[in-house]
Every structure is written in structure tokens, then in C-alpha cells.
Design goal:
This protein is an alpha+beta fold and 193 residues long. It is built from five helices and eight strands. It is globular, with a radius of gyration of 19 Å.
């Protein structure tokens, strides 16, 4: 009981002084980041994650077309992502702008202008997969895993694709951010009950 009380006091102290969440081991970051990668690409995917100090870094080099992102230990909810390597300059630019303190709308507008001007390379089509779930406090395994899919097709519109531009029921495709550099087809499968 005494150890439990000490542990609780340490947790309260950590929350009061703003200590960030501990960075998981490299192997765990790689294993869980790969949950977002399609099966055909898992073995050779490059993996980005975080070093012991919380700095964004390459955890594993890759030799295929996919890049996986480990869960950000500063975020409360577990989420990993994987995308085609041609999206890397676009994603890296977003991380750079976010690190400068820019908010979503400003990042969107800057990248929109840079893609239109040719300064930022945006592929004409590319895939992104987002994997979410809950980390088991006991096993550290991911439970209730869920993947949603994004297919970037810059500047596409509802008219050019025949897709609706408002959210649809789970399992149906729709076009988000139509007419912009960030136009993408969303496919959100139904969640298991």
C-alpha cells in the first residue's frame, strides 16, 4: 500500500510540473507503427519515431514505397500512420511548420500556396493509412485496432471524381478538401461492435 501511495504522489507531481510522457522503446515504436502499413509493404517500410529525448528521428531505414510514423508519445490517444514515400516532402513540410508553432489553417494555406507555385512537390496520387487503437496497460499490445484510408488526388473535385464531398456512412468513399492540394478520398470502414 505504501508503494502505491508513493507511486500516486509521483504521478501527481509529474502532472503538476508538466513532465511529458515517457518515450516507448524503439522496438515497440517500430512494431506498432507497422500496424498502419499494408501487409505487402511491412517488411521493407521505413519507420519514423522518437528518440529517448522525444526528438523526431528515423528508427529504421526502408527499401520499399512505404513510410510509417510511430505514435507521438506527447499525444493522449494512440495513432500511427503510413504513407507512400512520394508524400514524404508534403508530410515533412507539415511537421516543420507545426514545429514552428503554426496551426492547422495556416499550415494548410502555406502548403496550398507552395504546391500551387511548385515549391512543394505533391504527388498526383498517393495513399495514407491511419491506424488507431488502445494500448493495453497490462500487455502493451494494441487493442481495438482500426484503420481508415486516405487517397490523395490533389485538386480533384466532386465533379471530376463523381464522389460526394460530404461525409458518407462508414464504408462509403467521399472526397474531402475538394479543389485543393489536399483533396483526398476518405474511406472509413465500419467499426466492430
Amino acid at each position: 500500500m505504501k508503494q502505491y501511495v508513493i507511486f500516486c504522489l509521483m504521478m501527481v507531481f509529474a502532472m503538476q510540473v508538466g513532465v511529458s510522457q515517457e518515450v516507448p522503446p524503439k522496438e515497440w515504436q517500430i512494431k506498432t507503427a507497422l500496424l498502419a502499413v499494408p501487409a505487402d509493404y511491412k517488411d521493407g517500410a521505413k519507420v519514423y519515431g522518437y528518440d529517448a529525448n522525444g526528438n523526431f528521428t528515423t528508427l529504421r531505414e526502408g527499401d520499399n514505397d512505404y513510410i510509417a510514423l510511430a505514435n507521438d508519445p506527447k499525444k493522449e490517444k494512440f495513432s500511427t500512420a503510413a504513407y507512400h514515400k512520394d508524400l514524404d516532402p508534403f508530410m515533412a513540410r507539415g511537421r516543420e511548420l507545426k514545429a514552428q508553432g503554426k496551426e492547422f489553417k495556416e499550415i494548410f494555406d502555406i502548403r496550398e500556396e507552395e504546391v500551387k507555385s511548385g515549391k512543394l512537390k505533391m504527388p498526383d496520387k498517393a495513399t495514407l493509412c491511419v491506424f488507431t487503437g488502445e494500448v493495453s496497460a497490462y500487455s502493451q499490445e494494441i487493442e481495438n485496432g482500426y484503420v481508415r484510408y486516405v487517397f490523395y488526388i490533389p485538386f480533384a473535385t466532386g465533379e471530376s471524381t463523381g464522389l460526394p464531398t460530404t461525409p458518407t456512412p462508414p464504408g462509403h468513399a467521399w472526397l474531402m478538401d475538394p479543389g485543393t492540394h489536399r483533396a483526398h478520398i476518405m474511406i472509413t470502414p465500419p467499426k466492430k461492435k
